[in-house]
Amino acid sequence: MLSIKRKKGFTLVELLIVVAIIAVLVAISIPIFTAQLEKSRNATDIANAKAMDDALKVYYLSNYDTDEALSTQRIWGVDEGYIFVNQHGIRCAGNSYLALIQAGYGTKSDWKKNGSNEYVSTVLKCHSKTKWVKFQITFTQDSSGEMSFTYCGSTKINAEYSGNSDAFAKAINGTYKDISLGEGEN
Question: What is the pTM of this model?
Answer without folding.
Answer: 0.66
